[in-house]
Amino acid sequence: MEAKTNFIAVDMPHASRLVLHVMAAFAEHEREMIRERTRAALAAAKARGVRLGVNGAALAERHTADATAYAATLQDAITTATNAGARTTQQIADHLNAVGIPSRQGGRWHPANVARVLRRLRSGVMHQENQIGSAA
Question: Could you give the C-alpha distances from 95 to 24, 68, 104, 116, 119, in angstroms and in order?
C-alpha cells in the first residue's frame, strides 16, 4: 500500500484501498494492545513472585534426556555400521536407512542427525567415565 501499487488481496478481492487501510490500522492497534496486555501480565506475575522460564529449562532437560536415551538404543546399529566400513556420518546414515531403522522423528537418517547422535553417545560415555572415576 505504501508503494502506491495496485494489488488485489486474494482473500478479499473486492476490498478497496480504504478498507485495507482501515484493516491495517486495526491490526496495528490490536498488536499494540496485545503487547501492553502481555507486558502487564508478565509484570503482575513477577510481582507475585512467579519465576518465569522455569518450565522451559525443565522441558529442555527432559528433551535432552529423551534424546540421549534414544541415542543409546542406536549404539549397536552404529557399531555394526562402523564395523561394516562406515566412516563418515553420511555412510552411517546410509547404513541406518538401508537396514530400516527410522530416525527419532520417524524419518530418514541424514548426516546431521547422525552427528547429533554420535555427540550424545560420546558425551554419555564421558559422563559414565566421570561417574566411574568419582566412585573409585
Answer: 53, 21, 15, 16, 18
The whole model's pTM is what? 0.55
Tens digits of per-residue pLDDT, 43-100? 999 999 988 877 888 888 899 899 999 999 999 999 999 999 999 999 999 999 999 9
In this structure, what DSSP letter does residue 94 have?
H
Average pLDDT of the residues of the chain? 86
Delimit the domains of the chain by residue range: 1-52, 54-135
- Torsion sign (Cα): 124, 79, 75, 57: positive
Q: What does the alpha-carbon distance between residue 74 and residue 97 come to, in Å, rounded to a whole number?
A: 13
**Residue 97 half-sphere exposure, CB side, CA atoms within 13 Å?**
13
3-state SS, residue 106 = coil
The Cα–Cα gap between 78 and 71 comes to 10
Whether the Cβ atoms of residue 113 and residue 104 lie closer than 8 Å to each other = yes
